[in-house]
Specification:
The complex is a heterotrimer of chains A (406), B (318) and C (412). By secondary structure, chain A is mainly α. Chain A has 2 domains: 286 residues, no CATH class; 94 residues, no CATH class. Chain A is built from 18 helices and 4 strands. About 1% of the residues of chain A have low confidence. Chain B contains 13 helices and 2 strands; from the N terminus they run ααααββααααααααα. In chain B, α1 runs parallel beside α5 and α1 crosses α6. The relative contact order of chain B is 0.18. Chain B is 71% helix and 3% strand. With 318 residues, chain B is mainly α. In chain B, strands 1-2 form a two-stranded antiparallel sheet. Chain C folds into 2 domains: 202 residues, Response regulator (Rossmann fold), CATH 3.40.50.2300; 161 residues, Response regulator (Rossmann fold), CATH 3.40.50. In chain C, 42% of the residues lie in helices and 19% in strands. Chain C contains 14 helices and 15 strands. The longest helix of chain C has 20 residues. The N terminus of chain C is likely disordered. The chains are: A mainly alpha (406), B mainly alpha (318), C alpha/beta (412). Chains B and C meet through α1, β2 and α10 of B and β7, α8 and α9 of C.
């Protein structure tokens, strides 16, 4: 509740340029949340979700164009509903076919559909607008011109909150509960008499629907769309956001997507290795933190009482320090390597040994003093993490906690 | 006119077969890995790319032949490392996490290559000794290197086939593909088998990269471009079947080659019914030519196979 | 206390006077693909603008006004470009420069147009020195957009005129292009200038952009068509692979290209490109000492000689500079005044005159047709080949007619 109030108050404290970024964060968060309906509940991994996002975006842009042409079917703030409907329609088609199979085959079907749509879209110019896509404009409504970022922010915020409530409500409905059961053990569900295929398809459609809504919101925010929205890397991005956040929790993907979108926006101007760092983080999370970062924090918070947390303070601090050291060391090494590799012209001239300017200081690539600190930092960080894990296991926990913990 | 038609068919067939064999070299490893471990290795295209880049680096400082010998081994080592220290960890958390891991690795490899070698394609050239014309077909010179690529692919196929069918190790591998628990119960070191197969698959993809990177462009987007198509090959051929991978690769290679020259459109289907002018008038998707749509057809094929016969053309019934 | 208050008041009024004498900085924001794929060619536009901004700084600004250069990375994606545009607006940019992808250009020009509609007192100018999609000066034209690049029509018209004159254009042309707006524009242009060039187009192909590894099937199709000349708008790997495949297959073809001069392309193709034609906006051999001085200065500051994208951008910014020079920059920056000055701007570059056409804001720039030859004065690194200029066509002869789709609304 407090969080909601804070979100409403945010534009008053943020500078203008940050407001648009927060809008983008919300949309990414909704996208990830909608995607996770499939995974968290039915354990279905879709690698082609960008097509629902994209079709929602296109549908809404078309609706906006119709509105500026005079044929408004709905008031402007309600136009993302077209995105929702488009996602629903496409979800029916793809969902029907994809749910015929499970596991890896399911993923491949979604991948195939996504690639087909991605390849065909540029050909259909009437619908998808060719290279520079289609553009539209927000039309005024009820006295608001929707010309400013702040007004767009509130519109997107309202929709996002409504969608989050709706998705949460869905998890409580019989179908939503059934979805969890399907994820646990599909065969048992079948034995209970339910039509598993139909249920999976319905859940798929719900996921696609909300994804389309997210696309519609981006259409309202950006007022432009082109066929590159169907690209595979966008489907991959939502997967990465969800799992780094924590796919097992309701809010995991929301926080993961919001945080990564923010970092991406800030980091992209500073380093061109941002995608590498994101990939490394993703791999580390997949290997060592299956509950995601939010999951890790939530596990700690679930311990509730302050005394327990106090006992865990050393491992937590050690863990944080370890992570910081490893990150700092890795980033330094990577940036150093990138700076070296980027200038082969200079490298050749200097016979392979060159000074590199990084963050205002000059580093000599031949000196051990340049390479050893980051390596030590990484090694030290790993030692700290190891210690943190050990301390956590040995931490004095109360009997009730010992019973519930691990 | 008739003569140039025949010429076109012959050249397209030759091009198609050599491209198909390239696809086979990369997808053979992928299909083995999936058949045995159930892991769809998203990073398989990256092994291909690494083979090309290692080949480029070694060829610059030593020679192409050194590259040919060493680069695939390096890629195989990387594959082994990934299996032993990364995949097994992720396996604990479930099948999907293995998939996600290989997916993340794909991103990492692409970014690492961009870091070290830049965004540009690199000048990886075949050795001058191999840069000559093999023969002439209807006025078009056919370069020897295409035959070399095909030759390497065929040699690889024979080696794998003999290995799997006639050696004890091959027997164990084939058994482990179908019944890993049983093979383990019989006392064999199945984790070692998994490691070996993963490394072998990676090495094969790496070999493909080292050889073809000298002919085709070597750039950081190689993994992405090829990666999608080899999924199609593996699905169509049958997950786990080497023979299926060969058949599917040739099929897709030849189709891609011919499709370039064919300007058929969906509207043409209406020709025998006299509906062509009307369909052509509708425009949109109906008038897109096959030559521009060629890239979509393999995915439609993949979809059909997945829905109707997921075992693929030559795979076992799942 | 009173003394203190008076002193403060005096200080305030003095500083107030100073601020009214010192102009705002003219903020030029470059939104370009600096780190995504394809950035190696696209970031050249940013480099060139940065060069120009530094030149202006060393000359003490324009009319006393300081030019401030800010860079934003669009990462090659239209969504990120839109986001960076909003950042640029929030940072107070007056002028946006972008030249890479036509897709991003399409997005940006619409964003600029909408922003100007919503903020008529604070419009933003958009200069594009690199995107060649026709629609930017066609159905998407608007008063605050200025294109300093050529387009498909101008290039093809120049190419076929020069090739025909030199006797290097055959009678049967094979048209092969990439399947997106630029390639389709090219295909249309090759068809429409057939009678000017005296050829028939025997076959035409549109293929996936920068994805194809194997051009063997296309060469087979070229052979089957019986063509003797290939005209293509392909660039980067699509061009290089096509040329290499034609060379290895032993087919002897005359070739007309648009982007052979981009860095890396000729070096990759090597001897395969001997005798091939290309269309450029600038060539080191054309323009005498002034051009050589520019090349040398650029190399000294940025480490490499400018490519034609970079020279084109420099000339575009110099045209902007000429426009700024006619204005009074001592007060607040008036972007609409800059726009109307830019419409009338006219400069003489070493390569020829550059002007701006008011009807659709397409720049009138010269077009240089060159041939790959060992006789060129300036050879590419590691190669004994260079681009020898064959014909220089002045802007007014090269430029294509105004498109009927452009309905520009002018401020009253």
């Amino acid at each position: 509740m407090l969080a909601v109030l804070m979100l409403f108050a945010l534009p008053t404290v943020l500078p203008q340029r940050a407001i648009a970024t927060v809008t983008q964060m919300q949309i990414a968060a909704l996208f990830a949340l909608a995607f996770n309906i499939l995974w968290r509940q039915t354990r279905l991994l879709s690698f082609g979700h960008a097509v629902f996002f994209g079709i929602g975006m296109f549908a809404t842009v078309h609706a906006m164009r119709a509105a500026t042409g005079g044929a408004a079917l709905l008031p402007m703030p309600l136009l993302p509903l077209f995105g929702l409907m488009a996602g629903l329609a496409l979800g029916v088609i793809v969902g029907f076919f994809a749910t015929a199979r499970t596991g890896t085959y399911f993923a491949m079907i979604t991948l195939a559909f996504a690639e087909i749509i991605h390849q065909l879209a540029p050909q259909w110019e009437g619908m998808f607008g060719g290279e520079s896509g289609l553009s539209a404009m927000r039309t005024p409504w009820a006295g608001l011109s929707f010309g400013s970022d702040t007004e767009v922010y509130y519109l997107v915020l309202t929709w996002s909150l409504a969608a989050i409530l709706a998705i949460h409500y869905f998890t409580q409905t019989p179908l939503g509960r059934l979805a969890f059961a399907l994820g646990d053990n599909e065969q048992r569900v079948r034995f209970l008499g339910y039509n598993a295929r139909l249920s999976k398809t319905l859940v798929f459609i719900v996921s696609a629907m909300f994804t389309g809504l997210a696309g519609g919101l981006l259409a309202v925010a950006n007022e432009n769309v082109d066929h590159s929205i169907f690209r595979a890397s966008l489907s991959g991005q939502v997967v990465i956001h969800t799992f780094i956040g924590g796919a097992g929790l309701f809010f995991g993907p929301v926080i993961g997507a919001a945080a990564l979108t923010l970092l991406s926006s800030m980091a992209a101007d500073v380093t061109r290795l941002w995608i590498l760092y994101q990939g490394l983080l993703f791999v580390v999370v997949v290997m060592y933190l299956p509950q995601g970062i939010v999951g890790l924090i939530a596990d700690h918070l679930a311990l509730g009482r302050w005394r327990q947390l106090q006992a865990l303070l050393p491992p937590i601090l050690a863990g944080l320090a370890g992570v910081t050291l490893i990150s700092a060391g890795t980033i330094f090494l990577a940036e150093l390597l990138a700076a070296l590799a980027a200038d082969p012209f200079a490298r050749q001239a200097a016979g392979g040994i060159v000074s590199v300017r990084l963050w205002g200081a000059t580093w000599d690539s031949a000196a051990p003093a340049t390479w050893l600190p980051p390596l030590y930092s990484i090694a030290g960080g790993m030692v700290l993490l190891h210690l943190a894990a050990r301390w956590r296991r040995h931490a004095q926990l109360s009997p009730e906690q010992q019973a519930t913990d691990g | 006119m008739g003569n140039s038609r025949v010429d076109f068919v012959i050249v397209s067939l030759l091009n198609g077969i050599s491209y198909g064999l390239l696809l086979f070299m990369v997808s053979a490893g992928l299909t083995l890995i999936f058949g045995m471990m159930g892991v769809l290795n998203f990073a398989h295209g990256s092994f291909y790319m690494l083979g090309a880049y290692f080949g480029y680096t070694l060829a610059r400082y030593a020679s192409f032949w050194v590259a040919l010998a060493i680069a695939p081994l390096a890629v195989a080592l990387i594959g082994g490392f990934i299996e032993r220290y990364m995949l097994r960890r992720a396996h604990r958390h479930g099948h999907a996490h293995e998939l996600l891991l290989t997916f993340g690795l794909f991103f990492i490899f692409e970014e690492l290559v961009k870091l070290f070698y830049g965004f540009y394609p690199v000048e990886y050239r075949m050795p001058a000794a191999l840069e000559f014309t093999a023969f002439s077909v209807s006025g078009i010179d056919y370069p020897f290197f295409r035959l070399f690529i095909a030759g390497v692919a065929v040699a690889m196929f024979m080696a794998i086939f003999l290995l799997l069918r006639f050696t004890r190790a091959g027997l164990i591998i084939r058994a482990a593909v179908h019944r890993p628990e049983m093979v383990e119960a019989l006392g064999h070191n199945v984790p070692l088998v998994f490691l070996a197969v993963f490394a072998l698959g990676a090495g094969m993809a790496g070999l493909a990269g080292t050889v073809t990177g000298a002919f085709y462009p070597t750039s950081p987007t190689m993994a992405q471009e090829l990666g999608m198509i080899i999924f199609v090959v593996v699905v169509v051929g049958g997950l786990g079947s080497i023979e299926g991978a060969l058949v599917a690769s040739l099929l897709i290679g030849i189709f891609s080659s011919f499709a370039v020259g064919l300007d058929w459109t969906l509207a043409d289907l209406g020709k025998p019914f006299g509906l062509h002018p009307w369909l052509a008038g509708l425009g949109g998707l109906l008038t897109v030519r096959l030559s521009t749509m060629a890239s979509v057809v393999p995915f439609v094929l993949m979809l059909i196979i997945l829905l109707i016969r997921p075992a693929g053309l030559m795979g076992e019934k799942a | 206390m009173r003394v203190f208050a008076l002193a403060a008041l005096a200080a305030a009024s003095v500083s107030g006077t100073f601020t009214s004498v010192h102009a705002d900085n003219i903020k030029v924001a470059v939104i370009e693909n600096l780190s995504g794929s394809g950035s190696t060619t696209n970031r050249e536009f940013a480099l060139a603008v940065r060069y120009w901004a530094e030149q202006v700084k060393t000359k003490g600004g324009i009319r006393g006004g300081v030019v401030e250069y800010i860079e934003y990375d669009s990462q090659g994606s239209t969504a990120t470009a839109a986001e960076k545009f909003r950042s640029a607006v929030a940072d107070g940019a007056h002028i946006i420069v972008q030249g890479g992808s036509s897709g991003v250009a399409g997005q940006l020009t619409e964003d600029v147009r909408k922003h100007n509609l919503r903020n008529p007192t604070q419009p933003i100018l958009y200069i594009n020195p690199g995107s060649e999609a026709l629609e930017l000066t066609g159905e998407k034209c608007h008063y605050y957009f200025f294109r300093f690049a050529t387009n498909a029509d101008m290039r093809v018209k120049g190419l076929v005129t020069a090739m025909r004159e030199a006797g290097d254009l055959g009678a049967k042309v094979f048209s092969i292009n990439q399947n997106y707006s630029w390639g389709k524009d090219m295909q249309g242009a090759i068809d429409s200038y057939a009678s000017l060039g005296g050829y028939t187009v025997v076959d035409r192909v549109l293929h996936d952009t920068n994805k194809i590894q194997d051009f063997g099937p296309y060469v087979a199709r070229i052979k089957a068509s019986g063509a003797d000349t290939v005209i293509t708008g392909n660039w980067a790997s699509d061009l290089v692979l096509l040329m290499k495949e034609v060379a290895t297959s032993g087919l002897k073809m005359k070739f007309g290209t648009m982007f052979l001069d981009l860095p890396g392309s000729l070096e990759s193709a090597g001897q395969a490109a001997l005798g091939y034609y290309t269309v450029e906006s600038s060539n080191k051999e054309v323009g005498g000492d002034a051009m050589l001085a520019l090349y040398a200065d650029y190399k000294q500051r940025l480490g490499h000689e400018p490519s034609s994208s970079e020279t084109r951008t420099i000339f575009a910014m110099q045209t902007l500079g000429a426009a700024l020079n006619t204005l009074d920059l001592s007060k607040k920056i008036d972007v609409s005044a800059i726009a109307s000055a830019l419409e009338k701007a006219n400069i003489t570059t070493p390569a020829g005159e550059i002007g701006m056409r008011a009807e659709d804001h397409q720049a009138i720039v010269p077009v240089i047709i060159s041939k790959v030859s060992p006789d060129a004065k300036y050879k590419r690194e590691g190669l004994n080949l260079g681009f020898k200029p064959v014909r220089v066509i002045a802007g007014k002869d090269a430029v294509n007619p105004v498109q009927s789709a452009c309905k520009m609304e002018r401020p009253s």
